[in-house]
Design brief:
Elements: E1 5-12, E2 15-22, E3 27-32, E4 37-44, E5 47-53, E6 60-65, E7 70-75, E8 80-85, E9 89-94, E10 101-106, E11 112-114, E12 124-130, E13 133-138, E14 146-151, E15 156-159, E16 169-175, E17 178-183, E18 191-196
Antiparallel strand pairs: 1-2, 2-3, 4-5, 5-6, 6-7, 8-9, 9-10, 10-11, 12-13, 13-14, 14-15, 16-17, 17-18
Length: 216
């Protein structure tokens, strides 16, 4: 969803296609069709990123211009899935190697680069993006996952959810300075936790004193 437009994958005509619905005009339409499946659309402004499964062995990330009505490949010849989109970047999971890594494509420069550190051999999954900030599900701390944040384009990294061991932390989402994720720290069930980025503030001191020291 972005403003008054919703996109989704729809099993139409024997395979998955991408549909768009405008809330204002109330007109749903098929915008990306063709051979093979088109899946997992993400919309932001005039752009929509999606998975193109024309080659079922090598799904690719494509970018659709809503106003112009045309698509171009962002990354080809890989096994790319689950795109997320901001006004400046497209990010996705890449499964071309032995595990999943997170890559990004700059809408300004057209350059594809790895978001997560090249030295990592553990998996990074489920990227989400807002502006120039990416959050990912990362497995370097434990087999249960943790949440890491990357500021683009300088690539600085922050461990957002510093818990490990049996705690499961996954599927982050981000908007402006707020990050949410699925977290199992309280018990075996999952809850939603939120972190607001910014300068830590001390609790204010009360500038008054009680006149009565009893009762509620």
């Amino acid at each position: 969803l972005y403003e008054d437009e919703i996109v989704w994958q729809d099993y139409h005509g024997g395979d998955w296609d991408i549909f768009l619905y405008n809330i204002t005009t109330s007109v749903p339409s098929a915008i990306v069709t063709g051979a093979g499946d088109q899946k997992h659309p993400a919309i932001m402004g005039n752009h929509m990123a999606y998975e193109n499964w024309s080659d079922p062995l090598h799904p690719e990330i494509w970018l659709y211009d809503i106003a112009g009505g045309n698509s171009v490949p962002v990354v080809s010849g890989s096994f790319a899935r689950y795109p997320a989109l901001s006004q400046t970047y497209v990010v996705w999971e890449d499964h071309s190697g032995s595990g999943s890594l997170v890559f990004g494509y700059s809408l300004a420069t057209g350059i594809v680069s790895r978001i997560t550190p090249a030295s990592l051999t553990t998996e990074q999954m489920h990227p989400a993006i807002a502006g120039n900030t990416v959050v990912v599900e990362d497995y370097r701390q434990s087999a249960n996952g943790a949440i890491y944040l990357y500021d683009l384009p300088d690539g600085t990294e922050t461990w957002v959810s510093p818990l490990s061991g049996s705690v499961i932390q996954k599927t982050p989402a981000i908007y402006q300075d707020r990050i949410v994720w699925d977290d199992s720290r309280s018990d075996t069930s999952s809850d939603i936790y939120l972190l607001t980025r910014g300068v830590s503030e001390s609790c204010p001191a009360a500038d008054f004193s009680p006149s009565v020291h009893a009762g509620t």
